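Appendix B. One record, verbatim.
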Amino acid sequence: MFKDLKWKTAFKRAAIFTFIWIALIYLTQQIWPHAFKIQGGQQIFILAGYAVLFFFLYAVMFAFSDRRRRQAGTARKKDGKSRGAQSQNGSEEDPESELKGRFNPNTSRRKARRRR
């Protein structure tokens, strides 16, 4: 389950998103001072605790999403369906190109009937 996870990039992204979250909290506190009621030292420690919690949640989320993105990319390359590989090969023609511009019989004709 935790195999092939790139934690370094996940922690970097999580730090960025946590920083953005804290900045938005700070800006909201400056614009509307009574929105979060952060006035004492105890509320700042609670906010820091939430920031640490969100940091680790973001890190796990980004690690798993990055692994899934990499697996989808390798699966596409193994199947030979990547567009870059087909466009570089002159011998292999894109199957969609021969149908381009032709009528698709699977579409609804209701709108065309109404216009007549």
